[in-house]
Amino acid sequence: RSQISVPVFMFFLSFYYCDNGLSSLKMELLSDVSLLPGEERITDKDIIYICPFSGAVKGKVLITNYRLYFRSSDADVTVTLDVPLGAISRVEKMGGASSRGENSYGLDITCKDMRNLRFALKQEGHSRRDIFEVLFRYAFPLSHGLPLFAYLGQEKYAENGWTIYKPIEEFRRQGLPNNKWRISFINKSYDLCDTYPTVLAVPYKSKEEDLRKVAAFRSRARIPVLSWIHRENQAVIVRCSQPLVGMSGKRNKDDERYLDLIREANDTTKLTIYDARPNVNAVANKATGGGYEGDEYQNAELIFLDIQNIHVMRESQKKLKDIVYPNVEESHWLSSLESTHWLEHVKLVLSGAIQVADKVSSGNSVVVHCSDGWDRTAQLTSLAMLMLDSHYRTLRGFQVLIEKEWISFGHKFASRIGHGDKNHADQDRSPIFVQFIDCVWQMTKQFPTAFEFNEHLLLTILDHLYSCRFGTFLYNCESVRDQHEVRSKTVSLWSLVNSKVDMYLNPFYTPESGRVLYPVASMRHLELWVAYYIRWNPRIRQQQQSPVEQRYKELLALRDEYLKKLEQLQLSDSSTSSHLANSPTPNTTSSSTSTPSQQYTHLQTPL
């Protein structure tokens, strides 16, 4: 038998434990990261995060099929990153094998949520190749023949969020159908319009054949259909796409008659058509077969709202990102913010929605469209409905509004966000939905007691707009969602929200059913949404919690505590009273003989 000396044996033993101890230490660094059901670890690696606020930070990165997770290993600097891969827009290699300078070799990651990430690796043996390939593959699954994470997730919730919006129920809540408006199922197989929902509300006097004729004269066959009706004055908000007038100025008698049926439904003197575009753009669209309603539409007036197109909005948000990340442009902040034109665009969208809401509130029906009726149109109709109808200002009502006006009516989420798609330079990308949520936030700031939901809900919605964790914002329209079985194979974002309702409630909410909200859409009253656009800056993050809201929550908790004690006192009093009732007591008629429990019921807190 071969002999090994004790010292040599101990050396090998210590080497073995040392080596394995180090690797297990590395694994332990990220072993406590809690994963979602269906989430799988793909790879992890020692890496340096070039933090724009703390400098170069050593640590370890974990990549799963859902997220990129980084945690620093330095004792003196604590940095963690938790980024859903769906939020990644672009992954690039930084530097080459011959690059000089510290931390010049690694990865540059551009995100869709207003931040960029930079990681450095050692310049040896293609150390970044594996992590680049894994990241590129799982951040853009559709470009690599892989499913989006929403189809792999296995989260379970008590409530099925897919049932939050039922078109027939929502129309009934509005008082439809009635003797002026009917429900049509002409699009039940998406034959009339493949980007519209299956259930449509149309004028009672219109026939199915009329709808087909009108569809032939509207861009993408997106005919004018009802979005909302005013219960008292019966004025309506109708949405559609542009008419196909073209350079030759074509007319369509069926389309003209159809719009007149909308006007007649509540005897509006003049039907107001709000074209979201600048006049010059609408005229230019004639060259590609589009256009706008001319004088041939009798008893109608046309108003242009001057809201710019998706390309202008995309460039505006890019400029905004440049001045807020990684560092806020302090020296010329106001002029820098003004140069992005972001708040100016927000102002125009809000101003347009106010005009729509005011016109309907005064009893006049309106038609709203842009070019195709799925971007600016959705912004205007949904914001106007939010102003007019307090139901949409509740937590569940707001979910219905998004499902109805954005998701079911075919806002092109897949094209505008680029879920799972590596083509970051796609000209269809645009922050239209982000801009809508920004407008909602502006309204919550101006009317802090009018909304049942809080800012945290708006932030959660925007985070999951990108994350691909839920099926809610996937694909461009309902017909495509049906093909991909989104409702049966993925979880709805509203399942998460409605399972944690307390997190999303506004403690200042005061229900006011008949109140119409008219926000002030002037630059003096609009603010940059710091908690969203600048939230990655740690200095800003520390200031986010409103002290007033924090104190209010503390007082509410205190109230709950006192109410619980009050309940306990009442219980003990009632048992004492029943004990006294069973024993003989002197008869008295004094008004001061009310029981303690009766006195307690009159106790009220100022909250």
Question: How would you describe this structure to a colleague?
Answer:
The structure is a single chain. With 607 residues, the protein is an alpha+beta fold. It is built from 21 helices and 14 strands. It has helices spanning 6-31, 129-139, 167-173, 208-215, 253-264, 279-284, 310-324, 333-340, 342-361, 376-388, 395-408, 413-417, 432-446, 455-467, 478-483, 486-489, 493-497, 530-533, 538-542, 547-581, 596-600; strands at residues 41-51, 55-64, 67-72, 80-84, 88-94, 106-111, 116-120, 181-184, 200-203, 225-229, 236-240, 271-275, 300-304, 366-369. It has a seven-stranded antiparallel sheet with strand order 4-3-2-1-7-6-5, sandwiched between helices. Strands 10-11-14-12-13 form a five-stranded mixed sheet. A two-stranded antiparallel ribbon has the order 8-9. A hairpin with a 3-residue loop joins strand 1 (41-51) and strand 2 (55-64). Helix 7 packs antiparallel against helix 8 (333-340), helix 9 crosses helix 13 and helix 10 runs antiparallel to helix 11 (395-408). The longest helix has 35 residues, at 547-581. The protein is globular and about 75 Å long. The protein starts with 5 loop residues before the first helix and ends in a 7-residue tail after the last helix. Mean pLDDT is 90; it is low at 6-27 and 588-607. Its EC number is 3.1.3.95. Residues 598-607 have a biased composition (Polar residues). Substrate binds at residues 309-310, 370-376. One of its GO terms (biological process) is phosphatidylinositol dephosphorylation. InterPro entries: GRAM (IPR004182), Myotubularin (IPR030564), Myotubularin-like_Pase_dom (IPR010569), PH-like_dom_sf (IPR011993), Prot-tyrosine_phosphatase-like (IPR029021), Tyr_Pase_AS (IPR016130), Tyr_Pase_cat (IPR003595), Tyr_Pase_dom (IPR000387).
